[in-house]
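Follow-up to my earlier ticket, as requested here are the two runs.
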Amino acid sequence: MMKARDILFNTSWDELDLGTCKFFVPFFKQYISFILFQDHEPKPRITEKMILALNQIIELDKNKQEVFNKEFSNRELLKVREIHIDQENDVLNSIYSEIILDTNSNTYKSLIVKDGVIIEIDTAGTYLEALKKDT
């Protein structure tokens, strides 16, 4: 399990205080950039829920991914562009992140992850803030 210091050591912050770090995700068999969106007050930081979200992605269990397995039979052809972890999702009861897929066309496709399980395939660019009804 990655700790805050491991993540922060590997994170670079841009002028908008967005953090970018790259880790190997065994589920996708590739190194993937994680984009950390945070409130940057008073300085860039990550929360406990953000740390958990990152670790849940790294530890995705292929046996628990029914939604993913129904849609994608050949994981070898699938490429991930980046993973978004947003501090604004900390207000939700569950831990959310979004896996942005690299498609061959101009279509948008992402995987919504809740508590380490891919729960939805999004093609509309849904804001996770819409999940405020989360219980």
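Run two:
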Amino acid sequence: MNRPRKNIDFAPEETSNLRRGIDLQREFYKRANIENNYDIMLKSLENIKSEIQHKAHAKNRKKDILRITKIIDWCKTLEHRYTKNTPSGSRVVFPADIELRISKNLQVAYEIIIELLGILGLI
């Protein structure tokens, strides 16, 4: 017996709470980007990723979600990576171009998210 497959449309209605929440997080990201507030940018990316993760997996976009996750984890572990032990205790010593690297990686993650949102029909 061949049963017809059910196609599930993951695109929400025009005024859904999901779309409003994602739009709000995108605005937070944009404001934080202007102010160079990387913590808020990171949190916004995490929030958007958690909202679209299952929908992206359903559309076979697992690699994109994995790449975003790796960028987020990289940003979260920076302090641990650049902690140096000194005679007076441990301290964090970042390279000179760390802000440029953080900004570039967060922007790459945001561009991937925007692409995913377009594919999922959320923007």
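The only thing I checked on run two: The mean pLDDT is 87. Let me know what else you need.
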